[in-house]
Design brief:
The structure is a single chain. The protein has 750 residues and is mainly alpha-helical. It contains 42 helices and no strands. The protein is globular, with a radius of gyration of 31 Å. Helix 4 (64-77) packs antiparallel against helix 5 and helix 6 packs antiparallel against helix 7 (118-126). It folds into 5 domains: 143-246, no CATH class; 285-371; 375-471, no CATH class; 489-559; 573-748, Lysozyme, CATH 1.10.530.10.
């Protein structure tokens, strides 16, 4: 019986200490943390995984010895993922001897990790044990080292990310391995160095190596042997050239290259690409550049060089305004492209150049080449630009014709935009009906159905298409994924642990790097933790929204109402509710505006100088304060900012014929511009008027606020999407305010 009582007592103490620890960390009370962890029984009265997270806090405040003790405990007692992180962290803590022992342990215990042998390599290098370092972490065979993985060959974003992580890990090791070869006067140094300079993309580690090289005594540089005609000193100068190109110091790079004994046609593809950028942006005359690269393209037998040479020949021809030559060179570059990604790159520039010639040329280019592009999303921005040109130029028939051309080829989001707008143009008799056998209304309906259906994320066009079709879209907002998702439970516990222990930067960074492997349920938990912490640090609202947005955007994600509420939360509810009532605006619209403007960070300031939740400029705020008879105010105060924003939105709505959508355009772009745009648009319907606005930011703003307000209305205010769309697109605000009316009556009587 005493034993049972003792065990229960210990469990209670453990629970209490765990809760106390989390409370202390979330309060950032580091004095209390020092006192708590000073107890010898600390590790036995908290969860073993907490030792890792606590140690990170202790390292941040300089308590290195106690942090190391907790990491050593976690290394053997924590869960597998956390134990690994404890072992990894110990590689950079303590004396050189302790770090060396920790690095050896990590390499032996976790040989499958990308950085398994990096820490022992780094530590032995720092201790000047160069031969021992190379033995512990040997270079791969020259044949394997010569051709690094290529991100452009990745078929998915996940594959691309993994290749990037592999290359990052390899570069970190290569820097030290090369320095070890150099320090030991190993003749293999030059061969590996040459491959690293010529065949790899320039990384931060290349730049770091160059700094090491520049600081070496001259005798050490001279000791490096010339092998197969490759001089290490000249290779270092070539590396300096490539680093200068990466840093966009193009004129300086060209001067360096002129002093080197290299012929461009003999460059590797990586170096030739840098050569092309240096020539293009370093001031080389257009005619000279076009001739230089055309000559190389016609002579070379290397497909990589041929692709790049024709590509830069085309770029220089564009600068020369010789568009026929440019288009021909881009086509030859496309034909020589060694990968689908490079083909798309050359095609994108071909289409851009065709648009420079004329809209008709761009349309012809789309007709010919849209069926050949590899990654449809790569061309979204081009299709958006063409849409801008056609709509702002009132080329309605050409827009619909372009929509017909890209069906089956464009990415879903672009197709939704083109489909909805085409339907509206056909229905409004602004464009001809290209659908044979269908009446005008039937043709418009087919376009709306295309905009409504499909696996796209363009909520704005889906909502407006549902409005045109009379579909109760609320039934479709929540979705169940049929794709099976294999979550990584250990990784999920790891990232949630960061957040629970108030290590929010680490949690967000880890989630961003691995979100493809993390379930939406875990993302939901993370987002909730961030949202709760945002009550003390409002900047965390942004991360909370980004986390759940990444998860919801995946095709394997199931969207429930709870998850949608995380995507469209209501911080500052009391302030918004009061401001909406006082100034006669709809709460759903005000929340949509604030979410779009600031992501609920009340302290944020834009590049233009707009401040706070509703992003108000100083001059606008000053004018509002005078009208509301407020002498002193703080735009980072939530109540003040929301009140000012609500007043301003209502004021704009009344001045623009009670159109909330027009008021939103004016909120973003200014009322004088909106009136000028209205005059030029000649009474276009509001949804089509949006598409003709010359400011992309204002167009996107209108779309985002309407989409967000629709979801706020659905989630919290018992509205249908239809109701919200109608309120924003063309009707008066539903809320009338006695308080606002009294304020305005007082102003009029003065």
């Amino acid at each position: 019986m005493p034993l049972v009582a003792c065990t229960a007592c210990k469990a209670q103490t453990s629970t209490e200490n765990q809760e106390k620890l989390l409370e202390i960390l979330n309060d950032s009370d580091f004095d209390a943390l020092k006192e708590l962890v000073s107890s010898p029984s600390f590790t036995s009265t908290v969860e073993p995984d907490s030792c890792y997270y606590t140690a990170l806090h202790l390292l941040n405040i300089g308590e290195t010895e106690r942090a190391a003790e907790l990491l050593r405990y976690g290394k053997t007692h924590a869960s597998w993922q956390i134990a690994q992180e404890c072992a990894r962290k110990l590689c950079s803590v303590g004396t050189p001897q302790e770090r060396e022992a920790s690095a050896k342990y990590f390499a032996e215990a976790y040989p499958q990790e990308r950085d398994a042998d990096f820490y022992i390599l780094e530590e032995l290098f720092n201790q000047k044990k160069y031969k021992e370092a190379l033995k512990a972490c040997p270079l791969p065979a020259l044949a394997d080292f010569a051709f690094p993985q290529d991100e452009q060959k990745a078929k998915t974003e996940l594959q691309k990310k993994r290749i990037e992580l592999n290359l990052e890990a390899q570069n970190k090791k290569t820097k030290y391995q090369l320095l070890c070869l150099l320090k030991t006067k190993n003749p293999k140094f030059t061969e590996y160095f040459s491959l690293w300079v010529n065949n790899w993309n320039i990384s931060e580690e290349h730049e770091s190596f160059l700094k090491f090289w520049e600081e070496l005594p001259q005798e050490e540089k001279d000791s490096a042997q010339t092998v197969n005609g490759q001089n290490p000193g000249t290779l270092a100068e070539l590396l300096q050239f490539r680093v200068s190109v990466k840093q966009k110091k193009y004129k300086q790079a060209l001067l360096m290259l002129a002093a080197l004994p290299y012929s461009p046609e003999n460059f590797t593809g990586k170096v030739f690409s840098d050569f092309g950028r240096a020539e293009l942006y370093g001031g080389t005359a257009a005619k000279e550049g076009a001739s230089t690269f055309r000559t190389i393209a016609e002579k070379t037998k290397d497909p990589d060089i041929a692709f790049l040479a024709w590509f830069y020949c085309a770029q220089f021809s564009v600068n020369e305004k010789n568009f026929d030559a440019a288009l021909n060179a881009f086509i030859l570059s496309m034909h020589a492209a060694p990968t689908p990604a490079k083909y798309d790159n050359a095609l994108w520039y071909y289409l851009k150049t065709a648009r420079t010639v004329s809209l008709e040329a761009a349309k012809d280019a789309l007709k010919t080449y849209a069926p050949t592009w590899q990654d449809p999303e790569y061309f979204d921005d081009f299709l958006e630009t063409i849409a801008e040109d056609l709509l702002q130029g009132c080329y309605w028939n050409d827009f619909v014709e372009t929509y017909m051309l890209i069906q089956g080829y464009a990415a879903p989001d672009s197709l939704a935009r083109y489909a909805y707008i085409s339907g509206r143009l056909i229905e409004e008799t602004m464009a001809e009906n290209p659908f044979q056998g269908l009446s005008r209304l039937q043709a418009a309906q087919e376009c709306y159905e295309k905009a409504y259906d499909g696996n796209h994320t363009a909520l704005y066009y889906r909502f407006l298409a549902a409005e045109q079709l009379g579909i109760p879209i609320e039934e479709e907002i929540e979705k169940n994924s049929t794709i099976h998702f294999e979550e990584d439970k250990a990784l999920e516990a790891f990232v949630v642990g960061y957040a629970k222990h108030a290590l929010f930067d680490e949690a967000y960074k880890t989630y961003r790097a691995h979100y493809h492997d993390i379930s939406i349920e875990c993302a939901s938990e993370l987002s909730q933790i961030f949202s709760s912490a945002a009550e003390k640090d409002c900047k965390l609202h942004y991360n909370a929204l980004r986390i759940i947005s990444y998860a919801a955007g995946r095709s394997d994600s199931t969207l429930t109402k709870d998850i949608l509420c995380l995507l469209y939360p209501r911080p500052y509810l009391e302030e918004v509710k009061a401001a909406a009532e006082t100034f006669g605006v709809n709460e759903d619209v005000l929340f949509g505006l604030i979410r779009t403007e600031s992501y609920f960070d009340r302290t944020i300031t834009s590049r233009a100088g707009a401040t706070g939740l509703a992003q108000l400029m100083d001059a606008t705020a000053s004018d509002i304060a005078k009208k509301l008879k407020i002498k002193e105010y703080d735009l980072t105060d939530a109540e003040t900012n929301v009140n000012f924003g609500a007043y301003y939105l209502n004021n704009l709505t009344e001045r623009l014929d009670n159109s909330i959508m027009m008021a939103l355009f004016a909120y973003n772009g200014g009322i004088a511009r909106v009136r000028r745009w209205q005059k030029a648009a000649k009474d276009l319907p509001v949804d089509l008027f949006l598409e003709t606005i010359p400011f992309k930011e204002t167009r996107d703003y209108g779309r985002k606020v309407l989409s967000a307000a629709s979801l706020y209305g659905y989630l919290y205010y018992n509205k249908t999407v239809h109701q919200v769309v109608q309120e924003i697109i063309g009707t008066k605000p539903q809320i009338e305010s006695n308080k606002l009316n009294k304020t305005q009556d007082t102003e009029k009587s003065k």
